[in-house]
């Protein structure tokens, strides 16, 4: 059986993270409304990201982890931009002075450096391996 972790973008721009064993059914429930108070109050919703998992435990762990992420970090995941996910994994005071949150010029805050790797410390290595596209660095 396949399990899914997914992200929905609501009409107010907020994200909803969930997991299910039937992605099509669950997305239809969200779109109809009445099954989830959060998304029912923010219709319409749009599926913006999903990933299959081998076990419910993996899907639950990924859901719990992603729910705690900032909007910027979730947008990095949606875009498949692991440099952005890694950048927003760092505490704000550890980020470079020029950040993605500003339009300043200068050092590229997403440029890899020796001090930080692209590994996301908030996701276990097994779940991270499943979330990260196979062609990503």
Q: If you had to describe this structure to a student in words, what would you say it looks like?
A:
By secondary structure, this protein is of the alpha+beta class. The chain has helices at residues 23-32, 37-40, 56-67, 71-79, 82-89, 125-131; strands at residues 3-10, 15-20, 45-53. A 3-stranded antiparallel sheet has the order 2-1-3, sandwiched between helices. Strand 1 and strand 2 (15-20) form a beta hairpin. Helix 4 (71-79) runs antiparallel to helix 5 (82-89). It is globular. 24% of the residues are buried.
Please render the helix and strand layout as text.
Layout lengths: L2 E8 L4 E6 L2 H10 L4 H4 L4 E9 L2 H12 L3 H9 L2 H8 L35 H7 L6
Antiparallel strand pairs: 1-2, 1-3
The succession of helices and strands, N to C, reads EEHHEHHHH
N-end to C-end Cα span:
29 Å
Q: Which strand order do you get reading across the main beta sheet?
A: 2-1-3
Q: How many DSSP H or I helices?
A: 6
How many extended strands?
A: 3
Estimated helix fraction: 25-40%
Quick one: biggest sheet? Answer: 3 strands, antiparallel
- Unreliable stretches, pLDDT < 50, 5 or more residues? 103-109, 112-122
Q: What's the pLDDT, averaged over the residues?
A: 82
Which structural class do you get from the secondary structure elements? Answer: alpha+beta
Strand content: 15-25%
Our Rg estimate from Cα atoms comes to 16 Å
Shape call: globular
């Amino acid at each position: 059986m396949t399990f899914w972790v997914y992200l929905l973008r609501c009409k107010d721009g907020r994200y909803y993270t969930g997991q299910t064993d039937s992605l099509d059914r669950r997305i239809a429930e969200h779109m109809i409304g009445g099954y989830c108070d959060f998304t029912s109050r923010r219709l319409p919703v749009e599926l913006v990201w999903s990933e299959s998992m081998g076990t419910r435990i993996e899907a639950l762990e990924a859901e719990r982890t992603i729910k705690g992420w900032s909007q910027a970090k979730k947008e990095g995941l949606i875009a498949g931009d692991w440099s952005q996910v890694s950048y927003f994994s760092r505490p704000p005071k550890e980020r470079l002075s020029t950040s993605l949150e500003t339009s300043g010029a200068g050092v590229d805050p997403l440029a890899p450096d020796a001090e930080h790797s692209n590994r996301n410390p908030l996701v276990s290595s097994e779940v991270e391996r499943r979330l990260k596209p196979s062609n990503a660095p």
